[in-house]
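Annotated sample (chain length 142).
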Amino acid sequence: MNCNEVDHALIEVEESAAAALPPQAQEHVRGCKRCQQLVSALNMSVPADPPSPATLRQIAEGIATNLRPVRPVAPARYFFGAFIGIFVSIVALGVYRMGAFAIAVMTPLQTAAILSALAISTGLLAATEFLRGRYPLASPSR
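Output written by the structure step:
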């Protein structure tokens, strides 16, 4: 067994790294310095004590040193309006440039049904995007 195979065996093991390895991997670890260091690093216990307030303050200060204000994102209703405007523009441009091929031969009922289905599917698409949280209508602070 080589180091790469031991790495894959360690990935498959969820408990103690050395105890659950297959015999061939354990034999390789006994003779390989790199794998011994890897297994010992994986078996190290994590201290249960939480970091001191001074350490947490130092980490927070380190994170905050490079922060700078950013320009806020426009409200979601602007994105929604832009989405609707773009959609209507594309439909109007398509009808203007190519003509409404099928609408000329459809009855008014058929035309209304097709355009209603198109409008409903567009609304549902926009609603799912808002519900997924990509463009929230209201911020959580409101």
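Annotation: The chain has a mean pLDDT of 78.
Annotation: The first helix runs from residue 3 to 12.
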